[in-house]
Design brief:
Blueprint: H1 2-6, H2 8-27, E1 29-31, E2 33-42, E3 45-59, H3 62-65, E4 69-76, E5 78-81, E6 87-90, H4 103-111, E7 133-135, E8 144-147, E9 156-159, H5 164-168, E10 173-181, H6 189-192, H7 199-211, E11 227-228
Antiparallel strand pairs: 1-3, 2-3, 2-10, 3-4, 4-11, 5-6, 6-8, 7-10, 8-9
Length: about 230
């Protein structure tokens, strides 16, 4: 107590530093970014588009969510305008059935392992050191949806890989690749689908893809298929 009275500035400064250190650890963020490139080859020719996503790992106190570490994602679904005017969207969900909303967070760490990393799945720290571009297998390509009329969310339908030829035309194929990047997260989906922030329109899109075969892995909000993070 005597020390506190004699050195209030030292005690106060130490307390502030301890609080800052606590919040730095509790709420610190570990992240990296990757570019997802989508290519469609259909009877009209090849079309390519790319977008940058950012998985991030946040440390937090357990009372916030019951977990000390939470993995999240910043970014948007990738939209590719086909030559016939339709819009193909690589959703923020895995291509399996059921489709996992966490797949875009795990994708790059699984694709780059084990060649560049020590384990079957790269650690978050190891992702900073990987380089090059890796192709995705058909099972790793995100869930796809297609809008026959981009201005009408109800025109959307889930597009399974087995249906590519019947929907896009004979001989059509979809391929994808990812690469680690320092480029900023892309935010341009609103240009392709201006109804993205309209809750009613999102519900119409959700109902359309569900009725056409999309099966989510658990409950999720429709907007998380198209955009996440701040």
């Amino acid at each position: 107590m005597t020390f506190v009275r004699r050195h209030p500035i030292i005690v106060g400064t130490t307390a502030v530093l301890l609080v800052l250190a606590y919040y730095w650890f509790v709420f610190s963020v570990l992240s990296y970014r990757y570019r997802l490139t989508l290519e469609v080859d259909d009877p009209a020719g090849k079309t390519v588009v790319a977008g940058v996503l950012e998985p991030y790992l946040r440390h937090q106190t357990r009372f916030v969510s019951g977990r000390s570490v939470v993995a999240k994602l910043r970014g948007e679904a990738i939209a590719l305008k086909l030559r016939d005017g339709r819009l193909l969207i690589a959703l923020l969900a895995g291509g399996g059935r059921p489709s996992s909303p966490d797949a875009p967070i795990r994708l790059s760490r699984e694709v780059f392992a084990p060649g560049s990393c020590q384990e079957r799945v790269c650690s978050w720290e190891e992702m900073k050191g990987v380089s090059g571009q890796r192709p995705l297998s058909q099972n790793e390509i995100p869930a796809l949806a297609i809008l026959s009329d981009p201005s009408n969310p109800a025109s959307g339908r889930y597009l399974a890989v087995k249906d590519l030829t019947s929907v896009l035309g004979g001989g059509s194929s979809v391929s994808a690749a990812i690469a680690i990047t320092n480029d900023p997260v892309t935010r341009n989906l609103r240009d392709a689908i201006p109804w993205i922030d309209n809750e009613l329109e999102l519900s119409r899109f959700w109902e359309a893809i569900i009725h056409s075969g999309f099966v989510p892995d658990g409950s999720l909000e429709p907007e998380t298929l198209l955009q996440r993070g701040e």
